[in-house]
Amino acid sequence: MHHFYKPLALKIAFGVLGSLLLLQAPVSHAVAEPIPIASFFKESQFHDARLSPDGKNIAMIMKGANDRMVLAVLEVGQLRPEIIANYEDKDVRSFHWINNDRLVYDLTDLQYKDVQRFFGPGLYAVNKDRSKRLRLVTHQYTGARTKVVGNELPWDTHFLDIAHGSASPDIFVTQSAGAGARDLYRLNTMTGNTEVTPRPGKVSRWLIDKNGMPRIAVTTAEEKSVIYYKDPKKDAWRTLATSEWASYDRITPVFFSPEGDLYVRANNGKDLSSLYRFDLEKNQLDAEPVISLKGYDFEGQLIYNQSEKKVLGMRYEMSRPATIWFDESIAAKQKQVDALMPDTFNALHFPSDLKTNIALVYSYSDVAPGSWQLFNFSTGKLVRLGTSKPEIKPEQMAEKEMLSYTARDGMQIPVNLTLPKNSTGKNLPAVVLIHGGPYARGNHWGFNAQVQFLASRGYAVIEPDYRGSLGYGLKHFQAGLKQWGLSMQDDIADAAKWAASKGYVDPKRVCIAGADYGGYASLMGLIKDPDIFRCGIVWAGITDINLLYDTHLIEVSDQFKWFGMPVLIGDQVKDAAQLKATSPLENAGKLTRPLLMAHGKHDNRVPLEHGTKFYKAVKEKNANVEWVEYAEEGHSFYLLKNNIDFWGRVEKFLEQNIGKGQPLAASDASK
H or E stretch including 340? Predict the structure, then answer.
């Protein structure tokens, strides 16, 4: 049964433009200090909070001693949390409640995150009173022939799910089995003992049902993707669906309902993906979707309550995130919270025991970083637990609007537009900020430190979700195949033209910027459209397509795994001429505009060679190129000192090349 659903077609349209007055202060007057760079790029002070299943305790990741993130537990009704996991040289990265008394967590090192490339996150379990701590997974990188001492599992073992038993100390973890396959283990967090689940092939993805049983396995073999189902009637795996590995209409398992129904994401012959029920008896999708989102692919999750054994609602994302509740009493509670905080998206998280009448509320918006509060529905009181960036004042930030424009071939391209706070909203200097991936959705309604920093300095920020980006249907994605430097690039140029035609920006004061693929597109924008882009900022940028084929890519998107670079970008033999023509390195001599380049020395996704080769080639004919290399960084910049240095350089570079926007003063919060 799936009585809690009704087929839905949802449409949400939001967005309000903010504005900021661009007036040059008289020379005789003192200019107020702008919001410090550090305020935008500091590590989060508070990272996560979750209620225990019974709702009596809250576990949270917060800033502790030595600027390290610690795991703490607060008893509901008390004021002081008790730290249960803290380390002098590591930070708690993530955690999960296993049951009412026990938690599992892993670690990272935020102060040297990418440099320690062979430091695994490990995995620990501990009771809420700090007792019975056990390390389950080693941090130490181990080769295939290296034996792990004791009961600890190898470093490439990761948490998947809990066992969903009220008092069970067990969890499920997956472990690399080579060639993209992952083994599944049921792990007892009190003893460290494991039980392996026999897999029906080279399983790349597992799905556990709400009774704590492995129920779905997705395998790959000989360019085929197969979804297997563990049939409880025969206690054996059987095939549900088979598709080509690089199919545009793959089925992705999402959720196994309490009633034994499988829900999947699929296109089912349509442009946009939707959520469907998969009939396990007929081995086929239902004819009609459970939910479709107008203009967007389905991206969301079902909200399940263990004690009630039912799905309470669903979270999904369109232009903004949203929640729909199938339970009327909880829908009323959502309205009660939203009435108190109407300007943020408020995600309610309930304990398994709904009678406790409390909820953890995670709130954020385009101008407000994440904050966590505890709400008591009986008293109507909110208790603040923590905020990720307490120095950020939402009233000082610039609002973001999702719009669209028409590309030169008629395709509609989604775009995020952020105008500086208190500006006229007209004739502004601007930065076209290009998302990486490129096969990802770039635009999300939430706080973006880079965007807000640029807007705080008086620049309009334009973020196009050019063709090839995900989230807007197959047509939008497929239109970007083999279009690096071609129609994908034209979409970016057309974004700048659109913003100028609408009067938002001064067409003579537009800069282009981005990292990874965004760095590639920024270089190509300067090479291909120097009349549109007066300067460029590139960090961790791809500078040569052929060099990508010589790099061992890690953490690549599903699209790279499914389709492969020859399909997505181009075949090195068949498309050799095109790859040469659209390679920034091959065309470095044509780049004459000012350029700021930065790269992390330990970047193992886009290796340093991309940056050094291009810098050497471009500076032969272009003296206006600045290069900076960060010895401690990898693909992203994590250390605060390096972010302050880099974005300080960005600020000066923009002032020199497209003029200074009027910055919003740190004290100017009320306007």
Answer: helix 328-340
